[in-house]
Write a structure and sequence with these properties.
alpha+beta; four-stranded antiparallel β-sheet
């Protein structure tokens, strides 16, 4: 069975320009899709992995 995602949202930092991704909530995964191609599919990321990704962003791990 395919994972269903709800409450798709974009970052408030996107300023409505349509050039970012949306994140949707699932039972045991987070969905990520392109705002310009919402019907083009999505990535499903396990919740635990998503939280680690967010922690890395917040800690500056990806900053150059």
């Amino acid at each position: 069975m395919s994972q269903q995602f709800t409450n798709w949202r974009t970052s408030t930092h996107s300023q409505g320009q349509g050039t970012c991704v949306e994140v949707g909530l699932g039972v045991d995964a987070v969905g990520v899709r392109d705002t310009k191609d919402r019907d083009g599919g999505h990535l499903a990321v396990p919740v635990r992995t998503w939280h680690r990704f967010l922690d890395c962003i917040k800690s500056g791990s990806f900053d150059r």
